[in-house]
Amino acid sequence: MTSRSVVDTNVLVAANGRDTHVEVSCQLKCVDELMRLSHKEVVCVDDKGLIMREYGRRTKDQGQAMPGTVFYKRIWQQMGNPHRVHLTPVEPRDPEGRDFRDPVLPPNNLKKDAKFLAVAIKAGALIVNAADSDWAEHRELTDRLGIDVRQLCPEHATRPEKSRADHASR
Questions:
Q1: How many domains, the chain?
Q2: One digit per residue, pLDDT tens: the chain, 170 residues?
Q3: CA atoms of 21 and 139, how far apart (whole Å)
Q4: CATH code for the domain of 74
Q5: 12, 30, 61, 108: which has the highest count of C-beta atoms within 10 A?
Q6: What is the model's pTM?
Q7: Is the dihedral of CA 76, 32, 139, 18 positive or negative?
Q8: The domain containing residue 36 runs over which residues?
């Protein structure tokens, strides 16, 4: 059976290597993962276009065929192929997809990523992440919901810890 994945936008941004803090090694992991996903797995997006709109905003083509932009375009082209793209029905409460009627999300601080979480729950998919620390910080929630998060670049997916001196001075 083919696996299902929801790809956080930061993977496309990191693959493009622009407007990101990731190192080249992480960028290459993201490029490889996007290629693998688009050829061997089913990529899940919501049926309201929330994820695709965010992909489009964050991967604006700047005259070159960047890997994240190519992935975004490939998802659009494969939208009618259920072996490549799963359109997951969701019912957002707001136009940005920060809260949902279906699925009902437990209270959390993942508002900007709620659309990815909602799709993962409804599609039975894992979430692919490169550089968003929110997924690591909310691991207890994703574990409780039975959602796996594939961390491509764990060194970039956590916030740097404050030194003890910083904490002592507060």
A1: 1
A2: 569 999 999 999 999 987 778 889 999 999 999 999 999 999 999 999 999 999 999 988 666 789 999 999 999 999 999 999 999 999 998 888 888 988 888 877 788 899 999 999 999 999 999 999 899 999 999 999 999 999 999 987 766 553 333 333 33
A3: 22
A4: 3.40.50
A5: 30
A6: 0.88
A7: negative
A8: 4-168
